[in-house]
Write a structure and sequence with these properties.
By secondary structure, the protein is of the alpha/beta class. It is 34% helix and 24% strand.
Length: 262
């Protein structure tokens, strides 16, 4: 592994009384206390503006708390070398965020190349990851504009996995895809997570996606944590805000997909 994130059991990420405000004083995150266990998929669920993406950015220091502390592998993010922290965390966003002037191979191999892996090892890793995410090796020489939306998203996942980071942050990664492609990638994500056992924090506003993919669901509202529960407990919750969210989605699946660590 190319990162210096320690590998140990227990908590991978912890928010301790964390708040985040803009300079003018408006608060996006308020007194957040939340734990993310190693190898679990924690889904941050909530409507637009609830603080999900800001919470994600606090983990890899794209934003810094205005109060409290965020810990990654037992160390406050303020005490991490920011570059080392980010290279130990894979980041997947909606529509992949690929560099348009890079080939698929260069996009996937970006972090290993920065980490000074030998060229043949980078190439081998790219081919390996294309297979892992269900793409043909012949796509390595193509550019993002030559790929479908689903293919670009698969490349985005492969790029996030390239240096084998222990933590993945995924911000609405399947939200821009058509329903069939989205369902395919959700199934592939589940299979991949069962094999790799990464620590994943996954942002979505889609309750069905949260129930399928999450080992726990953390519902956020107006920058505050409402509840953080396994899917089976979430659908039975009597919390008024949870029930409001459940009612808004109508009939839901009777089974859930990801039963990782909690």
């Amino acid at each position: 592994m190319s990162t210096d994130l320690p590998s140990k059991n227990g908590l991978a990420i912890e928010f301790r009384n964390v708040s985040y405000s803009f300079a003018e004083g408006s608060e996006l995150i308020s007194s957040l206390n939340l734990q993310v266990h190693r190898s679990e998929t924690l889904v941050l669920l909530g409507r637009s503006g609830s603080g999900k993406t800001t919470t994600l950015k606090l983990i890899n220091a794209l934003a810094s708390p205005t109060a409290g502390e965020v810990f990654v592998e037992g160390r406050p993010t303020s005490q991490w070398n920011t570059i080392r922290l980010r290279r130990g965390i894979g980041y997947v966003i909606q529509d992949a965020g690929l560099f348009p002037h890079f080939t698929v191979e260069r996009n996937i191999g970006l972090v290993p190349t920065i980490e000074n892996w030998p060229a043949d090892r980078v190439r081998q890793r790219v081919i390996e990851l294309l297979q892992v995410v269900g793409l043909d090796a012949s796509l390595a020489s193509r550019y993002p504009r030559e790929l479908s939306g689903g293919q670009r998203q698969r490349v985005g996942v492969a790029r996030a996995l390239a240096a084998d980071p222990p933590i993945l942050l995924m911000d609405e990664p399947f939200g821009a895809l058509d329903p069939i492609t989205r369902a395919e990638l959700q199934r592939e994500f589940l299979a991949l997570q069962r094999r790799l056992e990464k620590t994943v924090v996954f942002v979505t506003h889609d309750l069905r996606e949260a129930l399928l993919l999450g080992s726990r669901i953390a519902l956020m509202e107006a920058g505050k944590l409402v509840a953080a529960l396994p899917p089976d407990e979430f659908v039975r919750s009597t919390d008024p805000l949870v029930k409001q969210y459940l009612d808004a989605f109508g009939e839901l699946p009777t089974t859930t997909g990801n039963r990782g660590c909690a």
